[in-house]
Design goal:
single chain, about 170 residues, mainly alpha, about 5% strand
Length: about 170
Amino acid sequence: MPEIRTIGIPEVRVWMAEPPSVPQAPPVTLQLGVPVIDMPAFEPMEVEPKVVAPPVAPPKKQEPPKLDVPKTQIAPIPLPEVAPAIIEEEEVKPLVTQVVEALPTIPQATTVAVSSIIGVSAGLATPFLLKLIKPAVKKTAKRLQKAIGRNPTPEGVTARRAAQRALRG
């Protein structure tokens, strides 16, 4: 069995054990209910101005000049007589009657249900219809291009490459 080596413990550096920025005592202490803040780097702002302004007397109040305005007589405007509003009290209906009157009629409910069914089914059927219609539209477009005299564009990769080679010469 091999011999066990001696374990060496390096010297502990005291100056690294305690960071210098942490004070030894808390900066705020309590003396009979009055907190004292001991912050050596803190200097309060001076709020008193260094230059003293000379005292200024308040301005005297001036009375506005009196104008001679001729007094004119304004004829009173006759107001139309308004008849007192007649307030008709509406009878209070029981809750059951209010609910029955608020419900839609059968034709209204049927119309809304049918229109929503048509909308939902059209939305769901759109992908299927496109799969059915798209090939037919493509076929008719090819027939029209042939009838006009244009060559239809090649669809597959090999057909496109062959068309490109034919264009090069």
